[in-house]
Amino acid sequence: MVLLAWIFCFCLLLAPATAQSWATIPFSTQSLPIALRSPYLNSWLSQGKAPSATPFASNTFWPVFWTTSPPAQIVAWYVAIRVDGVMYNVFGGQNLPHVANQTAAIITPTQTSFILQAGPVNVNSTFLSPIEPTDLVRQSMPFTYLYVDVTSADGQPHSVQLYSDISAEWLSGDRTMICNWTANINSDYISLQTQLQSPIPFAEIGEQALDTTAYLSMSKQASTTWQIGGNNRGVFNNTGVLLGTQENNFRGISDAFPTFGIAVDLGNITQTSAPSVWLLGLLRDPVVQYTNGDGNKEMRSSYFWSQQANPLAAVSFLLNDSSRALDAGNAMDAKVLADARKISSPYADMVTMSARQVMSAIDITVKKDSSGKWNTSDVKAFFKNMGSVGGPGVNSVDVLYSAFPAYLYFNPAIAGYLLSPLLEFQNSKQYALPYAAHDLGLAYPNATGNSNPHNEGIEQSANMLIMTLAHAQFTGDGALISNYYTLLRDWADYLVNNTLSPGAQTTSDGLTITNQTNLAIKGIIGIAAMAKISTFAGDSTSATHYQTVSSNYENQWQALSFPSNTSHLLSGYGSQSSSGLMYNLYSDKLLQLNVVPNSVYDAQTTFYSQNSASFYGFSRCKHRISSLISGNGSPYDWMMLAASTSSNTATRDALVLQIHNFVTAGVTSNSFPLIYDPTSAKAGGGPGR
């Protein structure tokens, strides 16, 4: 089984519009990713609902920051072009007499491009959110690029000026909060920055951080101008040149909406020789407060600070890196798509829409040592659930479990950075529960620990054992196992004592049903994972013990989990009329444990193929969705895990295609809705994870 079968299982994004006057390549989608580089630099352009509404062009609506509870918040980013004295709107919802005509939208794993015609010229505006997972400096920098190319449509030279601005809406969900600003100008660059007048560390309103500084920057040229104020766009419209001034009346975000604009005059051209490049960044420092194993709070900073002296040094570095970054983005796109297409074209489409989201959900951090130097040997990563389903806490274990295959694919070391703080906290005197914690803290970015009892002991303990073994297998690095072996063994012993008869324990779906088949097998696989962990640790006696227990339990589990005709797995022991989506079998395949025999996979695959049309009516989904949408429902992260366990590619591809059909159904305006009704494609539960 190829690993790619499980990549991005948690984040298959978006539902597309179908009635449109331009081509969306490679497929139509309900909401387009724009800037996705951190949990807070995360914006999308809605395409509206189909078929009742025409999809939004890039210049008819503003990009938004999706929240778990609607409405989404506008985070304005604006692009315009002035051709022969006439200004055309290219990106953003500003009303203008002249609007460029969109002819295509193109999406790749790292980029979203819009092709438009503005009078006699064609414009290509490309938003690049780099994915450079093996370069922790670049990957941890919360900046995204905008590249704009212009070509004459009639072969004649034209006078062309370009303009882009942002508003202060990126700073807070409360648009009455006061912001201030400054312009940083030198011979190399223009960088306009804004922040709240009274920032609040480690706090959110409307899920937007309140300690953010936003930067819009561009390399300095003789023809580059800037302006901060409320009428920048009007000035550009009239003259194509900005005034190089800033208003001095700091005010509320929505009070006459101060904007931060940079323009460049390209002169009379038929074609740009290189793109004009803007850089948008949202910086916070520190990004996470973390309670370590000694009970002390650490102020964790983004990894890139170990190489960059200050924010403007980071801006300068990235502007000078823009050409290489675009080449690297193209190379990453080619690699990811080539790997994904080994599964199927529909699968590659979903990977395209999910890659940026999974990498933007984390902060990769370091801290300073006692001498004040950055300790780059102490790397920890923190994960925010970007959706409304699953645990809301920092490094929420069940949500991380869904995302984990993506990190194993991009860079398995990142998987270890995410596990490290979870293991360190639970190995301390601050944590005394016999099972694994649900998360590291109730609200991002406060990883201050969570030692509250919960009813997901089997779920979370098995998740931690499975992920720890996966990290060791994919990296060959046994440091986490060596450092936390006793803790891991304690969780395994908890599973030994509770897994075969899980009682009314709760799953990550929120289901509390007696003796759930799917939950029990996850615990059994967790015990088998511990056998491999013990082998890594050189403890052969324990390895034999846990392997024997998992084998014995699996035999008993089969006897309890099949109906009398052995046609499929039941959702609960002895519940003869039930059936279930057995996504927890996936980790047996991922780790190559061979706990479950092929006969079980074959039976379940046959059942999936015979019931695919009504697949989501399984009882596992009915219990979870009833409060969200009418009828049946399906979460597609678990659907992808189940598809990966199919014993033939035809069934696997059919299940993936069902998810793709939802992604391309265009019946919701939400980005990333995790749960949907397969009969109507109606989404439930808001944005997904």
Radius of gyration: 26 Å
Overall mean pLDDT score?
90
Q: How would you write the strand order of the largest sheet?
A: 1-8-9-10-11-21-17-14-13-19
Question: Helix content range of the residues, please?
Answer: 25-40%
Instruction: Supply the helix-strand structural class.
Output: alpha+beta
Q: How many β-strands, per DSSP?
A: 29
Main sheet: strands, sense, barrel: 10 strands, mixed
At CATH level 3, the topology of one domain is Glycosyltransferase
How many separate helices? Answer: 17
Strand content: 15-25%
CATH class of one domain: Mainly Alpha
Low-confidence stretches: 1-20, 614-631
Outline, from the CA principal axes?
globular
- CATH architecture term of one domain: Alpha/alpha barrel
In whole angstroms, the N-to-C terminal distance is 25 Å
Outline the fold blueprint:
Blueprint: E1 23-25, E2 31-36, E3 42-46, E4 64-65, E5 73-74, E6 77-83, E7 86-91, E8 101-107, E9 111-118, E10 121-128, H1 136-139, E11 143-152, E12 158-167, E13 178-185, E14 189-196, E15 204-205, E16 208-209, E17 213-219, E18 224-229, H2 232-239, E19 251-252, E20 259-269, E21 276-283, E22 288-291, E23 297-302, H3 311-320, H4 322-341, H5 345-360, E24 362-366, E25 380-383, H6 397-410, H7 412-426, E26 446-447, H8 457-475, H9 479-483, H10 485-498, H11 517-536, H12 540-561, H13 586-590, H14 598-610, H15 619-625, E27 634-635, H16 636-644, H17 649-663, E28 673-676, E29 683-687
Helix pairs in contact: 4-5, 5-17, 6-7, 6-8, 7-8, 8-10, 8-11, 10-11, 11-12, 14-17, 16-17
